[in-house]
Amino acid sequence: MKIKALLLATAMVATLFVGCSSTSSTSSTSSSSASSTSTEAPKTDAVASASLTNDPAVFAKSVGKDGKWIIAVTADIKVDKDLVLEGEFKNGKKDAAGKELIQRKIGLYTQDEARKVTARFTLTAPKITIKSPLASIEHGTFKGDIYVETNDFKLIDNKVEGNIYFKDDAAKAGFKMDAKSSVTGKQEVKK
Question: Looking at the structure, do residues 8 and 55 belong to the same domain, yes or no?
Answer without folding.
Answer: no
